[in-house]
Task: structure prediction
Amino acid sequence: MRSLRTALSLASLVTGALMLFTAPAAHAADTPLRDLAAAKGKIVGTAVTGSKLTGTYGDIAGAQFSSLTPGNAMKWGSVEPTQGSFNWTEADQIVAFAEAHGQQVRGHTLVWHNQNPSWLTNGSWTSAQLSSLLQNHISTEVGRYKGRIAAWDVVNEPFNEDGTYRSTLWYNGLGADYIANALTWAHAADPAAKLYINDYNVEGVNAKSTALYNLVKSLKDRGVPIDGVGLQAHLILGQVPSTLQQNIQRFADLGVDVAITELDVRMALPADSAKLAQQAADYKSVVAACVAVARCVNVTVWGFADSDSWVPSTFPGYGAATPYDDNYAPKPAYYGIAEALGGTTTPPPSTDGCTAAYSVTNQWSTGFTGEVRIACSGASLSSWKVNWTYGAGQQVTQAWNATCTQSGAAVTCANASYNGTVPDGGSVTFGFNGSWSGSNPVPTVTLG
Ligand code: G3I
Result:
């Protein structure tokens, strides 16, 4: 994909006029996710990076989502890199963008064992000092955004997999009550904000989620301000826990809200059409589980585009985890979310009476030129898309008169802005160059 993109952008510099590689944003005719979610009484969000909130990224973030979570900008290490010296630039930018687009903000995160400033983690503190540092941090950050943050992930990832408390700066220095104190201080700084505990691998019913359940129950019994639990949902393809909805329901029955806070579904690369279809089903089932429980209030994806995901750098060989591809084109996963929110995917135009034929028009030792001819008889098209899967490792390197993308073996080519119409009795042809080795069999193409 990356090499195709590089080749295509190089080619576009060279050949100019006919080269088109502008990825579409979500189809204009489809209802944005935020509107679909609103009709279900839900919020749909994404994690964002402040510096990217312009151009296509900003357009999609603003149009499709009703909540933004700063992916990194509000973490302690970001806002107070040097003790007493604050940097709110990116956090302010994201909050301002959200307000300009009628969006909520999920504050993320106040108390964590990662992404803390080194002056904090390298210091040696008495427990009284540590407690006062934490209280000041929470009061300062929550106070700064008072009235502007819908919900805070106050405490992030407090548990081990077996349900015991994670050994951290906070737990080791302050004991388990750091959690109750953090919630109490956050509530004092912004009584209107909903306060959450957020963790991963707590999506299904298991030892860790049961520990979280017992903690929330005891906090509520003690009158500690706790409004919700965040289930991060960093999932693996095909592994949505079967007890997800049951687990959401048991938290709801405790009297707290639930949010899916960091949803992504990673797969072994390269992606192919079967994996992308499974991913769509996975996204759909997670969103459907939230839709099914009234107190599940928000589903947030952890970055909406594959190019903005944390997955490839953390899990080498894995990626393609989000609902949009590297070029901001919606993937099947996007439509999985939309369908779970009650949206109907725009049906592709009927192709009855129209056919697509693939041929190799020139071939040399390492490369070839191919073309696809779309012809209609007794029918017509106003837009078209042609798909095929290469069986011998061929790779499209350049295309003209169409916008082509390749992910693994799967190629999709869509009409350029000027040749979507194929009249009854007419035809349109587009071409491409590709690489091959060994053999170069002609694939079966489908017209959509
Ligand atoms: O900003 C620096 C940049 O200056 C430097 O050049 C670059 C070189 O490595 O690093 C940049 O910082 C990176 C930062 O993301 C911003 O991109 C850090 O190395 C990198 O470790 C950090 O990763 C973040 C990760 O949390 C840290 O644990 C991810 O972006 C962020 O998406 C991820 O988010 C967490 C949630 O907060 C909690 N749940 C899990 C989730 C995924 O890990």
Notes: The pocket of G3I is lined by residues 71-72, 114-115, 156, 232, 262, 310 (CB under 6 Å). Residues 17-22+350-447 form a domain with the Immunoglobulin-like fold (CATH 2.60.40.290). Residues 273-291 form the longest helix (19 residues).
